[in-house]
Structures are given as C-alpha cells and as structure tokens.
Amino acid sequence: MKINNYLTFILAFLFSYLVYFLFNNFYLYYYALPIAFLSSLLLLTYTSHKHYFYLVFAAIAIVVFSNVFPIRFSFEIISVSLIIQSLLIIKLTLKTVKLSSKLEVRRDVVQIIIGSIFLLMFVFSYKQVLLALIFLGIIVAHIIYVYGGKLKRLVSTLEREGVIFGSGAISMAAGTVLLLGFLNHFDFLFFGLFSLLISDPIATVVGLKVMKSPGNKSIIGSFAFFVSSSIPGVIFFGLAGILFAFILSLAERFSPVDDNIFIAFIAVILSLAFFV
Questions:
Q1: Residue 200 lies in a domain
Q2: Could you tell me if 109 and 148 lie in one domain?
Q3: pTM of the prediction?
Q4: How does pLDDT run across 212-228, given as a tens digit for each residue?
Q5: DSSP for the chain?
C-alpha cells in the first residue's frame, strides 16, 4: 500500500476504535480490536488490492457472525471505519464528468426498490440478517463486476462515469450500517432508514423530473424528501416527526459530504438528542 493508504488505514482504525470507546467505555474492548482492524482494510483492498478483498471480507463475516461480540457494536465500528475510508480515499470521491438524468433516475428507482425490500425485512427480521444481506450484496456486486461478463455490463448501466464501481452503494451501505449501529429506538431507526433509503432517492427522482438538471439539488426535490419522510415521522412521533423530517431534508440538501453519510449522521445526532 502507498503511504496515503497506510495513513487512511491508521485513521480509520483509530477513529472507529475511539468512537467505540466513547459510546461503550472498555466493554469487550479486546473483541473490538479485530473488527476495527479488518474494517479499516475493507475499502483499501477494494480499491487497491482486490485479490485481498475477499479474504478481508470473509474474516469480518466470521468475526461478526461468531456471536462473541454484540452485533450492535460491530455495526458501530464497521460504519465509522467505512465512513472515514470513504472520505479519505480519493478514488471514491472523484466527481463524475457527466451526469445523465436517465441514469440518475434509473439508479434511484433501483435504490427505492432495494430500500423497500430492506425496510420490509427490517420490520420482520433481525439486525444480523440485514448485515448479512449488506455483506452479500456487496460481495455479489463485486464478483459480478470482476467476473460477470454480460451481467457486468448490466450492472455497469447503473454506475456513473468517472467513479470507481460501487462507490455509491458503499456510501449507502455505510450510512445504513451507521443507523443500525447507533440507533436503538426502533421507531426512529425505521424513520431514519426510510429517510435514507426511500426519501433521498425520491428527492432525486422528483427533482430531475421537474427541474431536469442532474447534479444540482433542487428545492422541489428537497420538498419531496420532506413530504415523504414526514409520513413515517408523523405516524411514529406526531408533530415532532415533521420537525425531524424537515431537519433531515436540510441535511440532504446542504450536505457537505456524500448525502448518504450525512443524512445518517444527522439522524444519529437527532436520536441522541431526543431518545437517550
């Protein structure tokens, strides 16, 4: 690995471990070490050493699903590590040269479908199953991209030009795992997941259909986010849900980083402020 990759690994490892301590003190700190170490290698191997990616991924799965460490803590460490790597690895943050309205709509329709399935399973399932699905989705997408042939061309129709394959899915996975790790209030967790997986792509689709300006977030899109996010917000929290939806719509519109990560981050802040 290059020097900047070593630095990314060190920062991801230290920061994810520090956040774990801030929330959980020294509880099972020795089990947190291998998860923090392996998680900090995920995106580095994905972008630079793909032949090691499967080994790292398998090792994480073994540690996480061995049940020697609470699943919630694994979510916390993995999400923070992924976010740090996503922000620091230049290959993942390159801006695409050209955005296509049809491509963006196609991507977001797929996200809405996947997000709806994910939410349905969340209601009737456990966090372990959801993490397994995230892991499975990433590994299948990676295998298709490397060895898929015709399937690779099909999957590639959902990717933007000028970015590394799967960067959008990685940021969405990081945001999702962040919510699953830090939100313990079931209703607010559902609300946060709905906002991230459903309201965010709805905002893009509505904004593109009305404004027809890919790459620029619109007031119409933000309003669509607010309205759609207000539905579960009002159902679960009454009038307070409108406030939560409004704050997340602002996070989506004015996000200084990838909105998948920033929406999840603001949702965690709201949860800590109102439900702890």
A1: yes
A2: yes
A3: 0.85
A4: 665 567 889 899 999 99
A5: --HHHHHHHHHHHHHHHHHHHHHHTTTTHHHHHHHHHHHTTHHHHHHH-HHHHHHHHHHHHHHHTTSSS-HHHHHHHHHHHHHHHHHH-HHHHPPPS---HHHHHHHHHHHHHHHHHHHHHHHHS-HHHHHHHHHHHHHHHHHHHHH-THHHHHHHTTS-TTS-TTHHHHHHHHHHHHHHHH---HHHHHHHHHIIIIIHHHHHHHHHHHH--TTS--HHHHHHHHHHHHHHHHHHHTHHHHHHHHHHHHHHHS-SS-HHHHHHHHHHHHHHHH--
